[in-house]
Design a protein that fits this description.
It is a single chain. With 673 residues, this protein is an alpha/beta fold. The protein contains 25 helices and 18 strands. The strands form 4 sheets. It has an 11-stranded mixed β-sheet. A 3-stranded antiparallel β-sheet has the order 16-18-17, with no helix packed on it. Strands 6-7 form a two-stranded antiparallel sheet. Helix 1 runs parallel beside helix 4, helix 10 packs across helix 11 and helix 10 packs antiparallel against helix 18.
């Protein structure tokens, strides 16, 4: 009987050990001691159970033999049942460990960290931004408009706090990059313009997209601030099926009248026309630049305004050249005329060396009637120098699509003008704040923009440079590096193609990584082997995928904080919407009284090739042909050099010195003839 009970106990013991071993192995509890405890904890009840069954059978035999009633029979049965129930505890423990490893660790725990970011109140760290939800609702920026804190830039995406940039920090320039439609103009450039107008900071805005809505909003907003605002627009505006004449929707602007320095005028025109070459054509281009320098010198000597039409007329007609020479000579500027004549003598009779220059000027600035009537004026409304010094504003709306070549040439001249004005600002004792915004400037970048960027930082001039991709800056050698180096504030919108490059620019942060040894088993569970390594690594401050997933109106902004250290943050930019009605209309003056007006005079017959007839500029108004009287001079042989320097002319037929305009130095030799 005892042997029978021992066999039953051993059977249950083997069953328990098998179940315990299965769950322990399945749950990857490889520790021998812990496994032995679980197994041993189940062995003891089964041994006791076997002994109790043997003890019970012996009592029954004694009861039958001595006819005794066992008062312990019920208590023994309860004890046996209790011990039997506790024998399954190790099995239960093993089973729950298995569930923990198989279900919790493998399926639940990997997803718990996704919910933890909702309660995070940490700074902008790489480990936070990887799982950051970039979604945001658009909002109005008007409640946060520029104040004593600076220019409102947007809200930090995580903290939702308003972010301001002081104007002094903006004077270290702003770089704005992002594809079309990312929100560069609406989110950054237009708010900068509105806030400049609010602060009464002079503004020059060159819009390479020619956004008519932007022009309207800026104009009407400036009226509320009582700030003179000018628009130069070459697009034909159509509203409600009605087309406006461009002479009514744009102010006039003559880029040739910005300076009285022939060298500055030449540089501006040369850069806008790309008259630079290192090939065999360099000889002709140098000749053309030399011609432009002497031409502007002569035109300025006439004390009259001039246009691109006048330049073309001068190159086309010999009679026109004689007329201009005569105008300059009468004002005592014969030296400028002599220099031009010497240069022209080095050319052939038809001036074929200047044919390319003449054609390109005629194509870009003369033949297009829309642009021609806006820029070939002698009393333009727009004067960039006056705008910047008198706290005014101007928007040049120059489309990179319609009239592309003419608009981009004008934009390049504007950049050259700005470079000249900002450079001259270095000599000012008090440097006023200026704001310059160049939208899509990659289309009209020239060599003049490089010194503009580098010198403006010390003149209280803030420049915002907006473009779509780095490739647009490759037209000018070294421009991309200059922009990256000299722009402290960088505003990067959604940039899938250059995300890796911008992530590198943001720099890295130090972090500690732990690596655990994990194995897979046949039961599709994972287990850490108890071995791990820690190592110090550098991680991107902002991962490349963040740049790829930015929403419209959202950017990663790099800026310098008050301590001078570089910071990066995801910024949700505000919108500065402004309700307007129809496009504004303007009045312009197209008077020619103050200019050379060479084409009009030629067509009116006021310019003649006759040597005996010469005309004054007033003939355009009077429409009268006048023969000028020669005033002969009594000049001695020893005085001929002095008289020539004073403006006396030699009559080869009469063999006498004369003048047509009697000046004070010539009166000593007066002799009427």
């Amino acid at each position: 009987m005892v042997i029978e009970h021992i066999q039953i106990g051993l059977f249950f013991l083997a069953t328990h050990c098998s179940l315990t071993a299965f769950f322990c192995v399945a749950s990857q509890l490889r520790q021998p001691i812990l496994t032995s405890i679980f197994a041993g904890f189940g062995v003891i009840p089964w041994l006791l159970l076997g002994l109790i069954h043997w003890f019970e059978s012996e009592i029954i035999q004694l009861q039958k033999q001595y006819k005794m009633v066992s008062i312990l029979s019920h208590e023994i049965n309860d004890l046996v049942a209790l011990l039997a129930s506790y024998s399954y505890i190790p099995v239960y423990i093993s089973f729950w460990i298995f569930l923990h490893r198989f279900i919790y660790v493998r399926f639940i725990k990997p997803h718990l960290h996704e919910f933890s970011f909702k309660w995070l109140k940490k700074g902008f760290l790489a480990r936070d931004i990887r799982k950051l939800d970039l979604a945001f609702k658009s909002y109005s920026g008007w409640p946060f408009v520029a104040n004593e804190q600076g220019f409102f830039w947007g809200k930090f995406h995580q903290s939702k706090e308003a972010f301001y940039l002081p104007f002094k920090r903006l004077c270290k320039h702003i770089q704005v990059e992002g594809p079309s439609g990312a929100g560069k103009t609406e989110s950054v450039l237009k708010p900068l313009a509105f806030q400049s107008l609010s602060q009464r900071i002079p503004l020059v805005f060159v819009d390479g997209k020619a956004d008519a809505q932007l022009a309207k909003e800026c104009f009407y907003f400036s009226q509320t601030k009582e700030i003179p605002f000018y628009i130069f627009n070459t697009l034909e505006i159509t509203e409600k099926d009605h087309s406006y004449d461009t002479s009514k929707t744009s102010h006039t602007f003559n880029p040739l009248l910005f300076s009285n320095d022939p060298a500055k005028l030449t540089d501006a025109l040369v850069l806008s026309l790309n008259l630079q070459s290192s090939s065999d054509a360099k000889f002709y281009l140098d000749a053309q630049k030399a011609f432009l320098l002497q031409l502007f010198n002569v035109f300025l000597a006439t004390n009259k305004g001039f246009t691109f039409i006048d330049i073309v007329e001068f190159m086309k007609y010999q009679d026109t050249r004689a007329y201009v020479f005569d105008c300059a000579t009468k004002l005592g500027n014969k030296h400028a005329v002599d220099d031009m004549k010497v240069l022209l003598e080095s050319f052939d009779k038809n001036l074929t060396q200047l044919l390319g220059l003449r054609n390109i000027l005629e194509q870009l600035f003369v033949s297009d009637t829309v642009i021609s009537k806006l820029i070939n004026v002698y009393d333009p409304v727009i004067n960039i120098h006056d705008i910047l010094t008198k706290k005014q504003a101007v928007l040049f709306s120059l489309s990179a699509g319609d009239r592309f070549q003419s608009n981009m040439a004008l934009a390049k001249m504007i950049v050259s003008i700005l470079n000249s004005l900002v450079g001259s600002k270095q000599g000012y004792s008090e440097k006023e704040d200026w704001m310059i915004i160049l939208d899509e400037f990659g289309q009209f970048s020239t060599d003049a923009i490089k010194p503009l960027i580098t010198t403006a930082r010390s003149t209280n001039t803030a420049i915002a440079l907006s473009y779509q991709s780095k490739e647009q800056l490759m037209n000018v050698e070294g421009l991309a590096d200059i922009v990256n180096t000299n722009c402290d504030t960088k505003c990067i919108f959604k940039s899938p193609d250059q995300a890796d490059e911008w992530a590198k620019l943001g720099g890295t942060v130090e972090s500690i990584k732990r690596t655990d040894v994990i194995e897979d088993d046949a039961f599709a569970t994972e287990s850490r082997e108890g071995r791990a390594s820690l190592r110090q690594v550098d991680e991107f401050q902002i991962e490349p995928n963040v740049f790829r997933k930015l929403n419209t109106g959202q950017s990663v902004t790099k800026f310098t904080d008050d301590k001078g250290s570089m910071q990066l943050a995801v910024i949700d930019h505000g919108l500065f919407d402004y309700d307007v009605d129809s496009y504004p209309q303007f009045e312009n003056s197209f008077s020619q009284e103050s200019g050379l007006a060479l084409k009009e005079k030629r067509l009116a017959g006021l310019i003649s090739a006759s040597v005996k007839k010469k005309y004054t500029p007033e003939d355009t108004v009077q429409k009268v042909t006048q023969v000028e009287e020669k005033i002969y001079l009594s000049v001695g042989y020893q005085e001929r050099t002095k008289a020539k320097e004073a403006g006396a002319l030699w009559d080869s037929k009469a063999k006498k010195w004369y003048t047509t305009t009697l000046t004070e130095p010539l009166k000593q030799w007066v002799k009427m003839g």
